[in-house]
Design brief:
Two copies of one chain form a homodimer. Chain A is built from 21 helices and three strands. By secondary structure, chain A is an all-alpha fold. In chain A, helix 5 packs antiparallel against helix 6, helix 10 crosses helix 11 and helix 15 crosses helix 17. The model of chain A has no long low-confidence stretch (mean pLDDT 96).
């Protein structure tokens, strides 16, 4: 058997196990009876352990070495070359982290997550602080397993954004921060738009039916996926042919079911579009979480909160909810669903403010890692940065530094991917307009196939063949660049708030 | 680490993998989008392969050997002694069958199953015959991997009924056959009961609600289980704390949803009742498929089709379906749902005729194995036996020898467990009456807790600690014995058909 076939045979099994673990985790969120939690935990832990053992086996190491020595003789950009490179990169990372450390970290974050949940309930940062100290110490030790780079945080970013550097993120944020802060000040100085029509009762069944029709229209393939309800919405891909999305209904935010489902559909379309040939390999994943988020954000915001989108869908929504929306004009509705309102809570924030929530967190993560910020200083730092970026200050840590689960589960390096997603989404949106000058007319007539087809061709099918910077460069002709997102925000929100385009 | 702890640690992982495969198979039947079939197949195949590799590893062999050499010093009947014995039995069996043979058989039955489905559609036994020839040849080779016993079929029985012998089954059938044939002749000579009330339209939603209420009343623990719809009803236990049952609605047989769900609940109550300490070991299974079937049959038939059961539930069913049942008396209803009607199709057959369908099949399996019956003779033999046992003859092979999937998937040895289940269920039912002389009054007032409690204590909790014969002996004081079932049938059905008890 040639080395590549040997490698593929070994990795197929690893991916099958990862898929199985993903499906079991989906089941846990969606259909598992409460008593099943411990059994589920055992199953998933065993499967993930075996997947790790099989991936880090000598057999994989030898197959990789042989494959690299032989070369695949079909060029640097070939699927096979990329397959070997991506697998080697992950193999090298997996081997560097000792099993003892993984077990120690698993125990620490399990305790930290419970402590965080209790601390948030009581808004008591002090109760969480020692756990977070421990998590940060673990993250530093984790970084120590890797060759020293320019910045220790580079190692953490790589887990979510392969090859992305702290310097690149810093540079990006340096451009975004002042322009977004200025835009928000400009908008909040204007009279607020009215979204009173959202504060009524909407039937969940009707909203779900409408949302599923939208999801169908934008191209979700129901023969290769399904939709269910869960406490927290998510999308999970068990290969491209079984992609599952979930939604929830929140009484006081009736449209969040729709936008949440469009968001998850954006993720799902990416997963459904990955080349079937990659399905049982490490190329069968997204390029990065940032690129993944660019797909969910593009469909949720650039498409789903756009005026052309509602030109097409608003009559149907009005028909579904005549008593709530019969007297609300399309213009009124459009402005209402695009209300900009600096809030304390990241997950409730709008397009114009979201990145600032992210920057504040990522800056803190970087500071915690390089020692320029201490855990005990976080609550005060949080308050001052919120004042500086968004002009609002949390009265309690529960609505401040304790609001997100990420740090308690050790997910340092994750937050940046949300902003990368926003930024990339606007670059893609602008590039698509270049290729399809009738973009807005397509959306206005409910013709989403050309856009999906373009994303399939340019992004989805490649899976993890290219890194985020590479794929953005290939599609847009430039590296990840904040300008299109800033221009998109300014061009969209100034008119909504009655400000002249020039500012 | 002592050998037993070592053994348990290794087996825990194997059971986790088996549980995961079961849950994935549940998902496949219940929620998987159609496109996911191939991905599901890969996942389940990989997990089952790894479970087999881990189970047959040298590490398990050494731990077993050490555990047997050391003894567990807590007696022959202890959980630990039984754990080692059951694990050693399965380990020995798993090692005897070469991986090449398993792969060859998997391919052959996959082809045979497709051929069977097509042959059944066209009622063309000839198209299936070469595949069945091959399956029988494989079964003979399979038997050859084991030490020669009294009868080659003993090896096949052991896969479903550990330690049960062909001689025991022969003896049992020898008693059942003439008495059941005679009873059916006696009943069918009498005027048929009327079940016209079943041939009306019943709403699926109302029937499901009623059935779920019944399931709750008899003791299904919804915090450790759930119910969904599937094409073929089944129950699957992912350990005692996550047990899932399914049902289906058949327009022309409205009550089959109810009786099917009670049947699956009988299986589920067994699974939910197995001692939690056994959950991640090989003792965390049923004693045998026959004992499993005794639980489903007991709840479906001895409880669910009894007069006391409907004394309690009939008013609620009438209330649910007033237009269909308002004018049907309880007596009329009871007789209607217990109509005896020799039919061509096993899965549609009633309590009084079911065993005869089974005997016919098991006799053929035994004959195919020992060479006294040839595959090509099956259709004719089927017709003559059906005439002899049930007085009906199939006009086509589709409604005759081709009706069941079992042979095409190589499940030789399985059919006997249905009749063992019927027989054991009546033994337990009689023993319960001995311990609870007010049994019928309990049922009549809807008090199912004492029965469930008795089954939990005497059967469920022990999992696979005892063999079928052992557990029946412990509970009833005798080995598996057909008399109580025959007495139950005669005592129940003669009055329904207006025959004096004496016959």
């Amino acid at each position: 058997m040639n080395p590549l076939t040997r490698l593929n045979t070994l990795i197929n099994e690893v991916v099958d196990l990862q898929h199985a673990a993903s499906l079991l985790e989906w089941d846990e969120q969606v259909y598992m009876p409460p008593g099943g939690a411990s059994t589920h935990g055992d199953m998933v832990a065993t499967i993930r352990k075996i997947a790790h053992e099989k991936f880090t086996s000598d057999a994989v190491g030898r197959a990789l070495e042989d494959a690299r020595r032989n070369g695949t003789s079909d060029g640097d950009e070939s699927d096979n070359e990329k397959l070997v490179a991506v697998t080697a990169h992950e193999y090298d990372k997996a081997l560097r982290v000792p099993a003892d450390f993984v077990a120690e970290q698993a125990q620490a974050v399990s305790a930290a997550q419970h402590a965080w949940a209790a601390a948030r309930r009581q808004s008591d940062f002090g109760a969480f602080q020692p756990h977070l100290d421990q998590v940060v110490a673990l993250k530093r030790r984790y970084v120590g397993f890797f060759p020293p780079g320019v910045h220790p945080y580079d190692v953490l970013l790589d887990d979510f954004e392969p090859s992305m550097t702290t310097a690149e993120v810093h540079e990006l944020f340096g451009v975004l921060r002042p322009r977004q802060v200025a835009l928000i000040r400009e908008l909040t100085a204007r009279p607020q738009v009215d979204d009173g029509f959202l504060h009524q009762s909407y039937a969940e069944a009707g909203m779900t039916e409408f949302a599923r029709n939208v999801v169908t229209a934008i191209g979700f393939d129901w023969t290769r996926g399904r939709q269910d309800r869960s406490v927290h919405p998510f999308a999970t891909g068990i290969g491209p042919n079984d992609v599952r999305i979930t939604t929830r209904f929140v009484e006081r935010e009736p449209l969040s079911l729709l936008f949440g489902l469009i968001h998850e559909t954006g993720h799902a379309l990416y997963e459904q579009g990955i080349a079937p040939a990659f399905a049982r390999s490490l190329l069968g994943n997204a390029a990065s979480l940032g690129v993944h988020e660019s797909q969910s954000r593009l469909w949720e915001n650039l498409v789903g909160r756009s005026r052309p989108f509602w030109d097409f869908f608003y009559p149907a929504l009005q028909q579904q909810f005549p008593s709530q929306l019969g007297d609300v004009s399309l213009d009124h509705f459009y402005r209402g669903i695009n209300k900009v309102n600096p809030t304390l809570i990241r997950v409730e924030s709008d397009e114009a403010t979201y990145n600032l929530h992210i920057m504040l967190r990522v800056e803190m993560e970087i500071g915690l890692l390089d020692g320029t910020i201490r855990v005990e200083d976080l609550p005060e730092l949080w308050r001052s940065r919120m004042q500086e970026y968004l002009g609002v200050v949390p009265a309690t840590d529960a609505t401040g530094v304790l609001q997100d689960i990420h740090w308690s589960i050790g997910a340092f390096g994750y937050f940046a991917t949300y902003t990368l997603g926003n930024v990339i989404s606007a670059q893609l949106w602008a590039s698509y307009l270049g290729a399809h000058p009738d973009r807005d007319d397509q959306i206005r007539r409910g013709d989403f196939a050309p856009l999906l087809d373009w994303l399939r061709t340019n992004i989805h099918q490649h899976g993890r063949k290219y890194k985020a910077q590479e794929i953005v460069q290939r599609v847009t002709g430039s590296r990840i660049d904040p300008q299109p997102y800033l221009e998109y925000l300014e061009r969209k929100y100034r008119p909504i708030y009655g400000i002249d385009r020039a500012g």
